[in-house]
Specification:
The chain is an alpha/beta fold and 395 residues long. 46% of the residues lie in helices and 11% in strands. It has a six-stranded parallel beta sheet, with helices on both faces. The protein has a two-stranded antiparallel sheet with strand order 6-7. The longest helix has 23 residues, at 220-242.
Length: 395
């Protein structure tokens, strides 16, 4: 087995979590980490039109907390908005940050929390690519995460993924201070997520768990979260896609997402995420989950054929709900079946503007900007292997 000793591990997930239908209604009862919040939301309409911002504001009023709203975040959040949000937090005298929405809003909120109290540029502190990797001088503002989607697990991990547009670098960064102090996972807020986004987010949650399960640094504890997350996606994602009002299915997928966040705190993603980050760093309109879907079959086929993690792939196939499992490639077959059931087996890279001529550029970007994730792969995936995976995925 390629894994390290699974009984040697650290456990550190300091976030207080409110999980379950109606849990947003309990926010005002909590000890919030300040008296004035910067509420970070996307530039879209959903959070406002669905009444989620108004509900949050009502909870803050009950708690005696004032607020300022920053509503510029893109689906793939960018550094310039991090810096603008931090400037607003300073100007308004905010002493904590609330990320309300999907992973992009919460990830941006974490980065804003860093820069609201620290000098220089956000990329000064980022590790990887052109980031300087400097130590963070001052403890970031406390963070509250209220997720309205089930995809990233960012509500229970320290990671924030943002893009430096000038250099096409999309990099995950965080530290022990960027764990949310408090997170709310209320599946009732996810009823309005459109079908397509439910699919993309569900596959993102799935691959967080599969990658953490295959990472060399995984442990017996992270494995528990990973396998349960995979099981819940296999059980309920199709149901949530077919009927967004099915609260049992929505709750299962939300829990899978949150468990994946625990997994990412205790283990780590592998190079599948590096490859996707390169794709959406160049093509900002590509939803992260869709990018993972585009490459997943070729990626996991490569792992299966490497012979490096066969038993783990077999275990994942069973967890996903496949009953006739005999070999590692059966996990790829299980993925194919789930893609077909969700109606996304025909997604194409070209649909999102990706050209075949740029695949090597994307492969190099993945290794140059998020090369650290490759170190956890169960087998070596060099530049040529990355190109091969992308070429096999291309349509």
């Amino acid at each position: 087995m390629y894994k390290k000793n699974q009984l040697n591990f650290e456990y550190f997930v300091p976030t207080k979590l409110l999980f379950g239908c109606g849990s947003l209604n309990r926010l005002h009862e909590q000890t919030l980490p300040g008296k004035k919040a910067l509420i970070v939301i996307s530039c879209g309409k959903a959070v406002k039109e669905n009444g989620y911002l108004e509900r949050l504001e009502g909870q803050l009023s009950l708690a005696g907390v004032s607020w300022s709203v920053f509503d510029q975040i893109l689906p793939n959040p960018v550094k310039r908005h991090v810096m603008e949000g931090a400037a607003q937090a300073k100007k308004e005298g905010c002493d904590f940050v609330i990320g309300l929405g999907g992973g992009s809003s919460i990830d941006a909120a974490k980065a804003i929390a860093i820069m609201a109290v620290n000098p220089g540029d956000y990329w000064d502190y980022v590790n990887g690519g052109s980031g300087k990797g400097l130590p963070i001088p001052n403890r970031p503002l406390p963070i509250v995460a209220i997720t309205t989607t089930a995809g990233t697990g960012t509500e229970t991990d320290p990671w924030a993924v943002n893009t430096k547009e000038e250099t096409n670098e999309k990099i995950g960064f965080g530290c022990e201070w960027t764990y949310p102090a408090l997170s709310v996972v209320d599946p009732e807020l996810m009823k309005t997520v459109p079908r397509k986004l439910t699919i993309y987010q569900g596959f993102d949650a799935l691959f967080h768990s599969t990658e953490c399960y295959l990472h060399r640094a995984g442990s017996i504890v992270s494995d528990l979260f990973c396998l349960k997350g995979i099981e819940l996606i296999g059980k309920s994602l199709v149901k949530a896609v077919e009927n967004g009002e099915d609260m049992e299915a929505r709750t299962d997928v939300a829990l899978a997402n949150t468990l994946a966040g625990f997994s990412q705190s205790l283990s780590c993603c592998i190079s599948e995420h590096s490859l996707e980050h390169a794709m959406s760093a160049y093509h900002h309109e590509l939803p992260h989950g869709a990018g993972l879907i585009l490459i997943c079959l070729a990626y996991y086929r490569h792992l299966a054929e490497s012979g490096s993690c066969g038993e783990r792939l077999i275990t994942m196939a069973r967890a996903l709900g496949k009953t006739d499992v005999k070999e590692p490639l059966d996990f790829v077959k299980a993925l194919e079946e789930l893609l077909l059931a969700c109606g996304v087996a025909d997604l194409k890279m070209s649909d999102f503007g990706i050209q075949k001529e740029e695949l090597r550029i994307l492969a190099r970007n993945a290794r140059d900007t998020m090369g650290g994730l490759f170190e956890g792969d169960p087998c070596e995936i060099d530049e040529e292997a990355c190109v091969k995976i992308l070429e096999e995925s291309y349509r």
